[in-house]
Design brief:
By secondary structure, this protein is α+β, with helices and mostly antiparallel strands. Helix content is 30%, strand content 27%. The chain is built from eleven helices and 22 strands. The chain starts with 8 loop residues before the first strand and ends with a strand.
């Protein structure tokens, strides 16, 4: 079906440092529409005018060709460099492929499913609880956090990773995983394979961030001034009558919400960056069990504290976007670690960390990218709701731009070359 002409131009070319990755450069009044189409097809933005396609199956030219044809049908002007066109016209197959009986189409189906699993893990939709080495392959147990709450066993890496079993409960999935792999079980996800690491660096622009870190210091994080927390506490009682003051000791004030479901304790003696100034908790009843709690150190910007207390008093309307989506849309840099995922602001002034296996520190927000030397820290336990975390992420995003990041260097930043992958070509 033909579409009305669109006033935008898309230029496709091989990635100069990540073969056979592909770069799309967009221009024209309706370039945003073209970029939206590409995003839906797995492309990711690396600048206002460029997008990149990097896949763990190394079949980027094939999918770039599909994207180009689709954009043409939508009426966009598309051109492809000769080098990329040669790659698109060249069929290839993995050497030593573990499923030699598969046709090219079937191989692509397996690889596409592996790509979806990779993207779900990278985007936080699929959380890996445990992993193990079965002697030949990496295996793992994981749970989907959105949509149908499936709990699965995974087998393999990169382009051959598959779901081998599905369970109705997380407990059942983990128990069976322990039974199968016993002493080989390790906490959290396995270290990223080299190809996974390279693909994520290309897609997120982390390599450019690494370069900037070598030439520019972290921007000074937003920090509360001395006495600012005291003023904020007084303003809370003056401006929101739903919070009642209770002060059992001279050095501690407790604020209790009129619903009797929320409580905030403030330590007036907290001064050092590691001192806990606030402890806030929510309960399932006036004399019920604690649902979750957070500790906040001295120096934390009061806007972040206000976001938490506002949510407990009268939660804003939630758009449905989770913290991962909000931080990604704001251009924060993601990084995967053995036990947690982190998101760092462009100027590195604020970092979000998500440790899905932790109970007390499920989420951590801190100044800069070094938790050990952070000027302030917020720690939230398991049980903190998704809409509260989303509100906290939005507030952090609003805080970070106030501290200008050092402009990127004017010279081109080249991504590290990836080791050649074993491919066999056939014309």
């Amino acid at each position: 079906m033909l579409h009305a002409a669109a006033n935008a131009h898309i230029h496709f070319a091989l990635h100069p440092d990540h073969h056979p990755g592909v770069i799309a450069t967009t221009s024209g009044p309706t370039a945003d529409a073209a970029r939206s189409h590409l995003h839906d097809l797995g492309w990711r933005s690396t600048s206002p005018t460029t997008m990149v396609l990097a896949r763990i199956d190394r079949d980027e030219p094939h999918y770039a060709g599909i994207a180009a044809e689709q954009l043409k049908r939508y009426g966009f002007t598309v051109d492809i460099t000769p080098g990329l066109q040669d790659e698109i016209n060249t069929e290839w197959e993995w050497s030593n492929y573990p499923f030699p009986w598969c046709t090219t189409e079937e191989v692509r189906e397996v690889s596409a499913e592996a790509q979806r699993i990779h993207d779900d893990i990278a985007d936080g939709r699929l959380v890996v609880h445990l992993h193990a080495d079965d002697g030949q392959n990496t295996v793992a147990v994981a749970s989907y956090t959105t949509g149908v709450r499936r709990h699965v066993h995974l087998h393999g890496e990169n382009h051959v990773r598959q779901v081998t079993s599905t369970f109705e409960s997380e407990t059942e999935a983990i128990a069976e995983f322990h039974r199968l792999y016993s002493v080989a079980v390790r906490p959290g996800p396995a270290p990223l394979a080299d190809l996974e690491r390279t693909v994520r660096r290309v897609l997120t622009g982390e390599a450019q961030a690494d370069h900037r870190r070598t030439v520019a210091p972290t921007a000074e994080p937003p920090t509360a001034e001395p006495g600012e927390h005291e003023s904020f506490l007084q303003a809370l009682f003056d401006g929101i009558p739903q919070w009642d003051r209770y002060r059992p000791f001279d050095d501690t004030t407790i604020a209790v919400h009129e619903s009797l479901l929320s409580r905030a304790e403030f330590d007036h003696e907290a001064r050092h960056r590691t001192d806990v100034a606030w402890t806030i908790a929510e309960y399932n009843g006036p004399v019920g069990e604690r649902l979750w709690h957070t500790t906040i150190t001295a120096g934390t910007p009061t806007l972040l504290i206000a976001a938490i207390l506002q949510h407990l008093d009268a939660p804003p309307v939630w758009s449905g976007e989770g913290p991962h989506e909000i931080l990604r849309a704001a251009g924060w840099h993601p990084a995967s670690h053995p036990a947690h995922t982190s998101w760092t602001a462009k100027d590195r002034s604020i970092t979000f960390e998500h440790a899905p296996h932790s109970t007390t520190d499920r989420w951590t927000v801190h100044s800069g990218d070094d938790l050990d030397h952070a000027a302030w820290t917020i720690r939230l336990s398991a049980g903190a709701s998704e809409d509260l975390l989303a509100e906290l992420a939005s507030t952090a995003v609003a805080l970070a731009p106030a501290h200008r990041a050092t402009p990127p260097p004017t010279t081109a930043v080249r991504l590290p070359a990836v080791a050649p992958q074993p491919r066999a070509y056939r014309r």
